[in-house]
Amino acid sequence: MSTPHYVTIGQGQLRVWRSGSGPDLLVLPGLIAAASTRADQLARALPGWTVTALDLPGTGGSGGVWADDIAGLARIIAEAASTLGLPPCPLLAFDLAAPLAVALRDSGPNWQPDAILLADSTVAEGWAERGLTPAPLAPRDDGTHLAVLWAHLRDAHVLEPRDARHPAARGAPLPDAAALDAMLRTAAAAPHRYEALWSLCLDAMPRLPGQSGILRFEDLQEAAGVLSVMASGRSDARALPPTQPFADPLRVWHDYADTPQGRVHLRRAGRGRPLLALQSAPGSSKPLLPLLHGLAPGWEIIAPDYLGNGESDKPDRSVDIGMLAEDALAVADALGLDRFDLWGTHTGALVALELTVRHPDRVGRAVLEAPVLIPPDFSADILTHYFPPLVADRWGLHLLQAWNMRRDMFLFWPWYRQERAAARAIGVPDAAVLHDWTMGLLASGAHYDRSYRAAFHYDTRARLPRLTRPALICAGPADMLVEGLAEAERLAPAGTEVTPTPATVWYPGQAPAAVEATIARYAAFLGGDTAADSHRMS
Questions:
Q1: Model pTM greater than 0.90?
Q2: Which of 19, 88, 192, 525 could pair covalently with 114 via S-S, beta carbons 3.0-4.6 A apart?
């Protein structure tokens, strides 16, 4: 399996996927297969090379960087290659990435390939001849833009490039549902940029036939033979440098931490006392961005995606809250954090609670937002009905399932109890926000339910009285778990603060003044005297 890594350049961050061993080969994966899929494919097809496959600008983990023309996009890629420390090396580009590969040759002094190889360029030329472009991909309230994108990607693999009425009888093996799902999530990271990238590359295809010094291949076996000759005399690839933060400490950046259980994706911001921010299940930590922006001036905030969720690894294991707490501690160990504060919401509140109970010597202060305290029969009902299987389907049927599950979570509590009495007052967010929440769920895939189930198996009532560190237990008025505050106040040890807050800051549509006041409440508590805390609680 390929390993993901982020590189920070002037404009933002790009994500790369690395596999194999030997000299360097830079890969532009094209616009119908994810970089992760290409890296895994090439590790098998091109042994003897270290493959570095790039999420193209505007897609996947590179969705935040962009330029409005081919030359500008090539300069971004060149800066990333230079920052990664790649030497001049062969560049292998698939389908519509061909114009980007050619432009890299003229991108300037930062970095240039010493050979250009194009795969599936005749396929891309066929798309250009018939003017193939994706239908509009702007997020829709009903989620059908995801089905449109899936159909575009699947048809690009299945149909003759020059004749959309017939299936292609030749070419690379067709992707399975998991590979299509990986590419959909790559393209859907920033749908408007994927559309623009497709159009820019498609428009540049007719200018390729006159280019000299370019090797073209229609199958990887032929390319492997040529590359085996090129490998002679080249040095093995060096390890990639650590990911660097932005110069602006308040700007959120992406990183990974390697732990014994797997590679954990992180969102990071700020400088100061470290704070682990632990998400609600079942998606990623992306909804916590308002928290990161709000607390970054005073803390170094690290928000991991749980293993099995978001962009973190997906180990095949059963999960409980104790395991998630040990995973969070492993992240702190990997980052060299001897002592840290905690902030957790919903599932994350339970993880923070358990981590504090197990390892009080590592924790300063903890904010526990809306820990799960519901009647046992309600927990049993949720465990029975809340978590239907979510598995990538060859026709993309799972996409509308994920969209409507996420949407109904804003309409009903619990989402499957679709009746008037279960209606929520929080309101459905706009399509763009719901799109991001759905992408987090899809990134978790078939593992989405494991951390979520753990929250409803956890015995909060037995663990809460065992707190020995200063804690703030809170919830906003729109939180479906806010009623648990009354029981939390009865259970929590003396000295624990239990209070409602004006907002749940990671919910969409919260009033800005309420969010600001809630962030200030967190900061006031977390900024308490930790030295006095240690003396008092020891």
A1: yes
A2: 88
Q: Which of the pair, 535 or 73, is modelled with greater confidence?
A: 73
3-state helix, strand, coil in the chain (%, to 5): 45, 20, 40
Contact in structure between 185 and 55 (CB atoms under 8 Å) = no
Tens digit of each residue's pLDDT (9 = 90 or more) over 190-237: 999 999 999 999 999 988 866 778 999 988 888 999 999 999 999 999
Cα 445–Cα 451–Cα 456 angle in degrees, nearest 5: 130
- Taking CA atoms, 161 is separated from 95, 130, 172, 305, in Å, by 11, 8, 13, 39
The domain defined by 3-230 carries CATH number 3.40.50.1980: no
Residue 535 has pLDDT above 50, yes or no: no
Q: Stretch 282-307: mean pLDDT, rounded?
A: 97
Strand 214-217 to strand 253-259: parallel, antiparallel, or no bridges (unpaired)? unpaired
Contact present, 485 and 498 (Cβ < 8 Å)? yes
Task: Return the domain boundaries, the chain.
Answer: 3-230, 253-537
On the question of a common fold for 3-230 and 253-537, the answer reads yes
Amino acid present at 416: Y
Phi-psi region of 22 (alpha: psi -120 to 50; beta: other; left: phi over 0): left
CB-based contacts of 160, cutoff 8 Å, min separation 6: 126, 166, 167, 168
Of 522, 427, 516, residue with least CA distance to 475: 522
Q: Which CATH superfamily is domain 253-537 in?
A: Alpha/Beta hydrolase fold, catalytic domain (3.40.50.1820)
